Amino acid sequence: LIHLLSIEGLPRAILTHILDTAASFVSVSDREVKKVPLLRGKSVFNLFFENSTRTRTTFDIAAKRLSADVFTLDIGRSSTAKGESLLDTVDNLSAMAADLFVVRHSQSGAPYLIAQHVAPHVHVVNAGDGRHAHPTQAMLDMYTIRHYKQDFSNLTVAIVGDVLHSRVARSDIHALTTLGAAEVRVVGPRTLVPGDMADMGVRVFHDLEEGIRGCDVIIMLRLQNERMTGALLPSSQEYFKSFGLTEDKLRLAKPDAIVMHPGPINRGVEIDSAVVDGPQAVILSQVTFGIAVRMAVMSIVAGNVA
Ligand code: CP
Prior knowledge:
By secondary structure, the protein is α/β, with parallel strands linked by helices. 36% of the residues lie in helices and 14% in strands.
């Protein structure tokens, strides 16, 4: 693996290798991540052309724990604001001996453009492009599911909410089907579920109660208002009434079901505070596992980890 741009098309062996490598970076307590010299002497450039809290920070921590030199470009203060193109920016950072670019961009395909452009020894990891893909989020989601549920083959997983605009949903669906989840469901209003879901091997539900009944894992998604036009945008109250996950509705899932969310959360819109802060939520564990998973991805693409 030279770059990680998407989960789509990757074989199960590679996904499992990423999960196993991540596990090797997590200490027995699952809290403390070890520092290793796998990227010593390498330069990692974080290029976040779109806002981020979790992904940007955990990539930063992960690269430092791999002993890389890390540079996080402040895009707001960069020469992008003066009209410098994406590829000219990349060329200039390559001239500073970049070894790995971590790229988030609002345009689907931007990390691919960079991967095609850079020299063969330079690596690119997609940190979320438009509504297309968020492969490291999917891998940390898979790590979290495997941590709590061990095996994918008996699991029913529901992905709930604004699937239409969600790069996380697409990457999670590819990862779950490749890893052999028994059933993957998407649950959401007709306006926010894309038409190609059946082709991706998932069951579609437009009723939350039906969709989460008997599930082992529920992945909640926020309304991605920044990618919606007026006609699609439901009111928060209206949406919460039909698709907000409350403690009452959660009782329809299996008693040991886990609740996940990639963040950022909008409490009282797609999920009730009582669920976010309740015993079945593993949302902050996802964030913690993100460090080890991003260490795994960067060490596999750029650190000669077989
Ligand atoms: N899950 C996720 O991508 O969060 P951020 O946008 O904060 O990185």
